Amino acid sequence: MSIEIKTSTLEPIRHTFEHTKRRFGDKPASRYQEASYDIAPEKNFHYRPMWQPDKLLNDSSRTAIVMEDWYAYRDPRQYYYGTYVQARAKLQEVTESNYAFFDKRGFADRMSDEVKAKIIRCLVPLRHMELGANMNNVLCCAYGTSTVLTQAFLYNGMDRLGIAQYLSRIGLLLDGNSTDGLAKAKEHWMTDSAWQGLRRYTENTLVVEDWFEVFIAQDVVLDTLIYDLMYRQFDEKITEEGGSDLAMLIEFMQEWHKDNSRWVDATLKSTVAESEHNKELIGRWVADWQEKAVADMAPLAEIAVGEEAVNASVEVLNKRLAKAGL
Amino acid sequence: MTSKKLNMKEKYSLLTRDLEWEYSYRDYEEIFKQESFEGIKITDWSKWEDPFRLTMDSYWKYQAEKEKKLYAIFDAFAQNNGQQNVTDARYVNAIKLFLTGVSPLEYQAYNGFAHTGRQFGGVGARVACQMQALDELRHVQTQIHAMSHYNKHFDGFQDFPHMHDRVWYLSVPKSFFDDARSAGPFEFMVAIGFSFEYVLTNLLFVPFMSGAAYNGDMATVTFGFSAQSDEARHMTLGLEIIKFLLEQHPDNVPIVQRWINKWLWRGYRVLTLVAMMMDYMLPNKVMSWQESFEVYFEEAATSLFKDLARYGIEMPDYAADAIAEKEHLSHQAWSIFYNYGHAAAFHTWMPTDQEMDWLSEKYPNTFDKYYRPRYEKWREMEEAGERFYNPTLPMLCQTCQIPMGFTDMENPTMTSYRQSVYDGERYNFCSNGCKDIFDYEPEKYVQAWLPVHQIYQGNCGGAEMEDVLGEYYRINLGTDNLDFHGSPDEARWNAWHNLQPAEDKLKKAS
């Protein structure tokens, strides 16, 4: 049995907006579709940007990648603002209770000084690298083409700020808010030879102008390597060394990386599949940045995990690239 | 180990400011290429006061709660066909104007704040801009969702991004935002963050939302309430950018003053659309344009500029020109749209007797003298079956792109008209403000994509008006446009409510 409330039904005169109908057919469109497709200005810009007079305000030639249709992409997570913030709010709720529990039980006191020092040296400096990732993804949002891509870049950029903030809180939790941990971590980032390659890599990405190359250098190459190294391998290593409680504090990063990778993979795959030109170009960018990244992260990988760590991360990256058709 | 307590400010600073480092493998200028070309001098970004101290975890949490409530209302609105409960189908034209004219500006703001959110050298300013970019994306997407249901039952919403890029009157808001985005990052912040979001927001965003509240539009007004706290954040950012620029270096003062003069005039001209919406398109009026202008511009701006006087900033030029127009603006704008009602993507109409009386009462110095006689004439024509449409194409102001229909305020029967010659060509303007803006940067404003010029040059689908309106603009002729009376919108509304044509209903009500 079911009960049935009668509501007045009115026959609609159309099912969705014309631009969504042209793209997806004459049927009700999802909220993701209405919020993401064909809403960016495309034509008849009035003035050339004073900061880049050779381009239009929104101009798809800001990358060497060519797409016949820049809305050919689809975010497998179907994030528009509403679904994005709700997904992150769920994740942060769990994280917040993890951090509170860690603090309340005084888990920092259960860690040896060596373990704490290792976390400060190897993990917490990533907060600076995450700020670089924030800037890079915001750049892709600002100069990229099509809302279906640019919105995902902004979500990624804001996520990286959030991760930098969680990493900073790890630094604070480990030393009872004395802030010495953060100061030491910054010192490592600035002068420790284990970090200089990665800092140079990050600074080099910040001057790249082609936004799709930035996406490759940051989200594809560096993130794949570093997230595997730190949030998988380092997590295991530090557990062996008596720092298993750290796992509670980095669960956000692990879950986030899984979620974000679905979008990165889909974006990479659609772009590579578009043409030989794209495939060849991306192949070249990947090779360039991968070579640098592997060399630059080696000293950190050795200290954080051990000799074989880099190769293990490279294997993860290669699998990922193969899946995207590279 | 007992933890030390950190206060909000210290904590926010550690979680945001302290993420920044001093670059040594690359130069600062390579990373922030746009920071100096406008002549603005920044000596110390650390003096930036964070306008809101919101970490990402709190941002996700608060915004997710707001979104959940908002979408629950949207769902209920659609399920119950809430569009039947607005005061009158004419009202819906106000939100057609909003979706085609204003929502795309939210999109442009999203683009613009992402740009400054990458370009500023100070991490505090960058992060504040990034959050605003994200909020602006929220606004455009939630507005689309709020109006998605109206689109299923009324004409004129269906091709809004396409129209925004092409239709003649939509080039007024579009060129305004293109102007701001094509400027340098600091000018963008003064243009949008300060002039638009701080000084003028109560005259743009608020009248639409109040209009929705007064006219039973549950979906739009719920969006308005939900966006209120975002807007409050944006206002504090707008004020902070001004204070920061003025405190950084005395050389910034004249540059900022010039930008304020320019952008308040530029923004005020866009508000012409709001003025006519308030006085003519809302069946239930909130307040008159003049009243709202007096409260939110004259009073609020006077006290704001008193505060800014200590930095050497003065009341902007042209404030007096704007004040002189307040008793005329909405009437002249509505007359233009009534004239070109066949070329708009919404319906126009003549006010009812009751509405004319309201206008007489609100505009005792001008309405009966200049506008009522004109409207009565047009109404007679309509009753005689000869509804007036102007078949010619208007000349547009080179700067604000509004048809040259504004009059001299001293003599409201004469069209106001200014000219400049640049590189051997003559350019026309509606006002001193628009002419001065052009004269300062003619190389920028000669680029303007003026819709009427473009039609004449054959760039808009053809030589016939049907080609331009139908093929190029994608306006469904006779469905989306022309007079409200006799429109399919009106017929559907009447069928839902078992009504005679709306005028009869209004006559009965009075």
Q: Can you give me a brief rundown of this structure?
A:
The complex is a heterodimer of chains A (326) and B (510). Chain A has 326 residues and is mostly helical.
Give the helices and strands, then pairings.
The complex is a heterodimer of chains A (326) and B (510).
Chain A: H1 18-24, H2 31-36, H3 81-104, H4 107-110, H5 113-122, H6 126-143, H7 147-174, H8 180-191, H9 193-205, H10 211-240, H11 246-274, H12 276-304, H13 309-323
Chain B: H1 8-15, H2 28-31, H3 56-79, H4 92-101, H5 103-119, H6 123-151, H7 160-164, H8 171-182, H9 185-199, H10 201-214, H11 218-248, H12 252-270, H13 272-281, H14 289-308, H15 319-325, H16 329-339, H17 353-362, H18 367-383, E1 418-422, E2 425-429, H19 432-440, H20 442-445, H21 451-456, H22 465-472, H23 488-497, H24 502-509
Antiparallel strand pairs in B: 1-2
Helix pairs in contact in B: 3-11, 5-6, 5-8, 5-9, 6-11, 8-9, 9-11, 9-12, 10-11, 13-16
Organism (chain B): Pseudohalioglobus lutimaris
Domain YHS (chain B): 415-449
GO molecular function, one term (chain B): monooxygenase activity
Can you tell me about this structure?
- The complex is a heterodimer of chains A (326) and B (510).
- Chain A is an all-alpha fold and 326 residues long.
- Helices cover 69% and strands 0% of the residues of chain A.
- Chain A has helices spanning 18-24, 31-36, 81-104, 107-110, 113-122, 126-143, 147-174, 180-191, 193-205, 211-240, 246-274, 276-304, 309-323.
- Chain B has 510 residues and is an all-alpha fold.
- Chain B has a domain at 29-327: Ribonucleotide Reductase, subunit A (Orthogonal Bundle), CATH 1.10.620.
- Chain B is 60% helix and 2% strand.
- Chain B has 24 helices and two strands.
- A two-stranded antiparallel sheet of chain B has the order 1-2.
- In chain B, a hairpin with a 2-residue loop joins β1 (418-422) and β2.
- The longest helix of chain B is centred in the middle third of the chain and has 31 residues, at 218-248.
- Chain B starts with 7 loop residues before the first helix and ends with a helix.
- The chains are: A mainly alpha (326), B mainly alpha (510).
- At the A-B interface, α2, α3, α6, α7 and α8 of A face α3, α5, α6, α7 and α8 of B.
